[in-house]
Amino acid sequence: MHQDLYQSLIKGHQNYKTSEFPKNKSLYERLAKGQKPKATLLTCSDSRIDPCLLTSAEPGDLFIIRNAGNMVPAGDVEGCSELASLEFAVCALKTPHLIVCGHSDCGAMKACLSPETVQGFDHLPGWIENGMQGLNDHIGGASNLDKAIEMNVLHQIKVLRKLKFIQSREDAGELSLHGWVYDIASGSINELKIDKKIKI
Questions:
Q1: Does the N-terminal or the C-terminal CB of the chain have fewer CB atoms within 10 Å?
Q2: Is 161 in contact with 199 (CB distance < 8 Å)?
C-alpha cells in the first residue's frame, strides 16, 4: 500500500516529463542558467499550501522557504537553515519582497496554544518556542487560533527586522516585508497591515 503511494509520485513525474515539461522547455532552459525570483516566501510546510499555485507564479518566480509555522529562530543561530536561506535570497539573489505567509488551521499554532500536544517529541517542543514567544509578547496573548496565526505572522516580521542583513536592505529601500494569512477553505489571502517604519 505505501509502495503504491510512492509509485504514484514516480508516475506523476513521468507524466510531467512527457506532458508538462515540453510546454515550458525554453523557460526551464533559461532557469537552468540561474534564478532571479520576484519574492522570497517564508511559509508553512503544510501540504495543503502550494505557494506557486495560490499566486499563479511560474517556476523561478518565488524563492520558497518552508517550515512548521513559517517561523524564524530568534537570535543568531549558527548553521540555521532558515537564516541561511533567507540570507541567500535577500543578499545574493536580492529578492525585492519578503513575504511571511501563515495559513488557516495551522498545526504549529495549535501546538503553541496547547504545547502539551507536542510533549514526547524530540524536536517539536523547542521549535514551537519560536511561535510561543510571539504570542506571549502580546498583551492577553491569542484568544483563538485565527488570532494566533495573525499574531505569529506579525511576530515573525519583527524577528526578521532584527536581522542585520534584512535591516540594511529594508532601510536602503531595496526590500519590502509583507504579512499574509492564506485561508485554505476560501482560497483568499488576507494581507496584514505591516508597519513599514517601526522596528524592534
A1: N
A2: yes
What Cα–Cα distance (Å) separates residue 112 from each residue in 72, 87, 105, 124, 137? Answer: 15, 27, 13, 10, 13
Mean pLDDT for the stretch of residues 173-190 = 96
pTM greater than 0.85 (yes/no): yes
Q: Residue 124 is which amino acid?
A: L
> Strand, helix or coil at 98?
strand
Which grid cell is 79?
548553521
Strands (DSSP E) found in the chain: 39-44, 62-67, 97-103, 176-183, 188-192
User: 1 pLDDT exceeds 60?
Assistant: no
User: Do 176 and 98 touch, CB atoms closer than 8 A?
Assistant: yes
Of the candidates 38, 10, 78, which has an alpha carbon nearest to the alpha carbon of residue 178?
38
Kindly state the cell numbers that stand for 182. 492564506
Instruction: Specify the DSSP element, H or E, that contains 137.
Output: helix 124-137
Which CA distances in Å does 58 have to 38, 97, 118, 160?
Answer: 10, 16, 36, 26
- Reported as a single tens digit per residue, the pLDDT across 88-137 is 999 999 999 999 999 999 999 999 999 999 999 999 999 998 888 888 76
Asked if 177 and 155 touch (Cβ cutoff 8 Å), the reply is no
